Predict the structure.
Amino acid sequence: MNMHFSNLLCLTFVLFVAMPPLLSAQTVAFGIKVGPEATESILASSHYQRSSSRRVIGPVFEVALPRTFALEAGALHRQVEYHESNIVYPVSPADLGEERESETTAHSWEVALVLKKYMDVGSHVRAYADAGFSGRHTSGTTHTQGFILQLKTTPGPPGPPPVMRTMPFS
């Protein structure tokens, strides 16, 4: 795990444990953020097709501070899946043919610590500006399966017809 991400995770944990006694008279809110992903978190080459939803979800904790400030900590999760299928047919007997499928799954956790300043815009509307830090940890796996087809047509002694052979790989 990245050292900066670990430090941010530890700081967030310390704030969750240390802040409640100090802020006993303040408003505390806990909830879940769910929404669509606004940008592509992982860029893949054009022959990969994305096969998962673009959803972000995670727990959020907010503590109201004096003077319409608030401190928010959250951990947002994204999961993306990509699928790629590649088929190459032999053009001549000397060529190799190949069929391959790959499935990639990646998980991304983003831990954020944000200071917010709320502003009254109207009688029923509150906007806010925020600034903070975030760290992201991404991990994934790729599974590939398929085969390579090779046609042997080398001249040789009389005998059986050319041999078709498949070589599995993963």
